[in-house]
């Protein structure tokens, strides 16, 4: 167990819970990459932080509930729950997320999150779209393209 890296992950999620973007950014390496089922892959601290700014600005805001972390000298893991209201649909989302990390220079250089896309789409989009189409590759691609467009518009 690497206590410094556990503290780094904890600091990141505590900052996310406070919507403290400056503190979150301090946890990331300049060459950080982020991946999840919606955004797939984002490269660089500027782009990753733009995604977090977008997430925190949507609807009535993102509430983060951190459940704990483990880490060694090279990698780590954490669980957290995201709670927010989807601005486009007004639907409440409670998303359980598993995060994986890699470290370089005692900063997060790789941040990857996994969650159940079908479950998320049912909560976020409702019926019929989320329930009927949330599992299909074409629908996932549509969601991803929309999210990246929103990120591009937000980041400019």
TrEMBL record:
- Identify the stretch annotated as signal peptide in this record: none
InterPro entries recorded for this chain?
NTF2-like_dom_sf, SnoaL-like
Q: Provide the SnoaL-like domain boundaries.
A: 10-111
What name appears for this protein in its UniProt entry?
Answer: Nuclear transport factor 2 family protein
The source organism is Nonomuraea corallina
């Amino acid at each position: 167990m690497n206590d410094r890296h556990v503290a780094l992950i904890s600091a990141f999620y505590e900052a996310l819970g406070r919507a403290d973007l400056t503190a979150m950014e301090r946890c990331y390496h300049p060459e950080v990459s982020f991946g999840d089922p919606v955004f797939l892959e984002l490269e660089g601290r500027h782009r990753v932080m733009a995604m977090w700014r977008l997430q925190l600005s949507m609807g009535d805001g993102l509430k983060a509930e951190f459940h704990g972390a483990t880490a060694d000298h090279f990698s780590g893991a954490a669980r957290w729950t995201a709670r927010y209201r989807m601005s486009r649909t007004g639907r409440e989302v409670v998303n359980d997320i598993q995060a994986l990390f890699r470290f370089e220079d005692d900063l997060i250089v790789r941040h990857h999150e996994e969650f159940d896309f079908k479950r998320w789409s049912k909560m976020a989009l409702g019926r019929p779209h989320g329930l009927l189409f949330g599992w299909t590759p074409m629908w996932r691609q549509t969601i991803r393209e929309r999210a990246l467009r929103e990120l591009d518009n937000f980041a400019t």
